[in-house]
Design goal:
The chain is an alpha/beta fold. The protein is built from 14 helices and 17 strands. Helices cover 41% and strands 22% of the residues. The radius of gyration is 24 Å and the shape is globular.
Length: 476
């Protein structure tokens, strides 16, 4: 009885500290997917958590709508699987890839022949976020505050030491303090520039529309449509709603103002390339408007080295959303952080030396999962948005690889189920050599004298595609 009362008293004191004095063990900036999941994970370990969010209204985004099976598994590990309930989420069984109208269907691989098929989930992003926020609000050790973070609070004696966050609440300046401040404020982070050595690089944007009652070639599959144009993605996010994302590289001539801009490109180029049954729903969505875009950025991760602070989520690491791996990376990161910063591993989060040591371990511990998804997303985008003859040769080889049934490894990597970078490396270069064989087979006899040069260029292009991203992952 004494122990129970002692725990209750301690919890009440922590709640009072959060509400009255704005003090906690951890302050998290951003109540998105990662911020909410981390708040609940650490709160359930007994940590006192302040979760700050500028707007508690339901977000409305065109990405973060497909959770791969690896992400579903991470959500289950965190005890948050019920956040997928009652949001009209759609089961995803794998991919439907169409290459110039020639389709192949790729199933998520089973762990064993007798095990159930793994499933992803697709949904409206905002509905999922609101369920995660409900979980955070229901956690006794978490206090959620609607406020806008404006600056980091640092120590007067040690300016590199972060003590908390300065905010604006109802037009009044405010501060929240913690032993550890977590920055999880997304792709447009306010605090990345001064605490992250790398800058996001953008090659294109995804332009999105919501189609109503669209007829897809393979319901319950994520659709990737490949042609001579940049890739197009389609996946159902509700009973009646289907998301279509059109990748438009910066300065694409077909989307220039003189050619009718983005809408002209969609009407003249994208619409005729879609499956015939899908075209009416796309035309109706295009006519209705509500066209929105999101930048497709790449940001390599970096070790968190600022005392008292940790950067996570898209503020830390981004990859092209082509493979839908962002939420899977985020949730797996929460699983890793939960173990490395547990009360058993770090009894006192004020022990800055130990916390920084654990964050250095985190940078490498997350690699098996995150590096596979990061590298694969960037490499596949280079192939799927091929803009020269060598990349197109690799694109043909990749599709041929799918056609011959070599899918369990690649799809397992895409799904976040296989967390082995060497498996990715071996499959990628198998595709490269297959591409060279396909090129040889399709080369006329009169051009065979040039084949050795072409084959070297294709292999060199494969190296140029993948090695920069491998090196980016190996940096600290």
């Amino acid at each position: 009885m004494t122990t129970s009362n002692g725990h209750a008293s301690k919890s009440q004191q922590a709640t009072q500290r959060r509400i009255e004095y704005h003090e906690a063990d951890i302050v998290i900036v951003g109540a998105g997917i990662l911020g909410c999941a981390l708040a609940v994970a650490l709160g359930r370990q007994g940590r006192s958590v302040l979760l700050l969010e500028s707007s508690m209204k339901e977000p409305d985004r065109i990405v973060g709508e497909l959770l791969q099976p690896g992400g579903v598994q991470a959500l289950e590990q965190l005890g948050l699987q019920d956040c997928l309930d009652e949001i009209d989420a759609i089961q995803v069984k794998g991919y439907y890839v169409s290459y110039h109208g020639d389709p192949v269907q790729l199933e998520y691989p089973k762990a064993t022949p007798s095990s159930p098929a793994p499933l992803g989930k697709a949904f409206h992003h905002g509905r999922f976020v609101m369920k995660l926020r409900e979980a955070a609000l229901d956690c006794p050790n978490v206090t959620v505050v609607e406020t806008t973070a404006t600056a980091l609070v640092t120590s007067s004696t040690n300016p590199s030491q972060v003590l908390g966050v300065e905010c604006i609440t109802n037009d009044l300046k405010d501060c929240y303090f913690a032993q550890l401040t977590v920055v999880a404020d997304g792709y447009a982070s306010k605090f990345r520039k001064t605490h992250h050595p790398y800058t996001p690089k953008r090659r294109s944007k995804f332009w999105g529309l919501e189609m109503i009652d669209a007829q897809l070639p393979s319901p319950c599959y994520g659709h990737v449509l490949l042609s001579d144009c940049p890739p197009v993605l389609m996946y159902q996010i509700g009973t009646h709603e289907t998301r279509i994302l059109i990748d438009i590289p910066d300065n694409l001539p077909a989307a220039s103002v003189k050619n009718g801009g983005v809408k002209g490109y969609m009407k003249n180029t994208v619409l005729p390339s879609l499956p015939e049954a899908t075209q009416p729903a796309f035309a109706a969505a295009l006519e209705k408007g509500n066209l929105r875009s999101m930048p497709n950025s790449f940001l390599p991760p970096s070790t968190n080295k600022t005392p008292g602070m940790m950067i996570l989520g898209d503020a830390l690491n981004m990859r092209h959303p082509l493979t839908g791996g962002g939420m899977t990376v985020a949730l797996n990161d929460v699983c890793v952080i939960r173990e490395l910063l547990s009360p058993e591993a770090v009894p006192d989060l004020g022990n800055t030396t130990l916390v920084l040591k654990q964050l250095a371990r985190f940078h490498w511990a997350r690699k098996n999962s995150s590096s596979v998804i990061n590298i694969l997303a960037q490499a596949l985008y280079s192939l799927f948005a091929a803009d020269d003859v060598n990349l197109r040769a690799l694109q043909r080889g990749c599709f041929r690889y799918f056609q011959i049934g070599a899918v369990d490894g690649p799809v397992g990597l895409l799904a976040g189920l296989i967390k082995q970078p060497l498996v990715l490396f071996s499959h990628f270069f198998t595709v490269a050599f297959l591409s060279i064989w396909v090129l040889f087979r399709d080369t006329p006899l009169t051009h065979l004298i040039l084949f050795p040069f072409r084959s070297i260029m294709v292999f060199w292009t494969a190296c140029v595609v993948i090695f920069p991203y491998i090196f980016a992952e190996l940096r600290s």
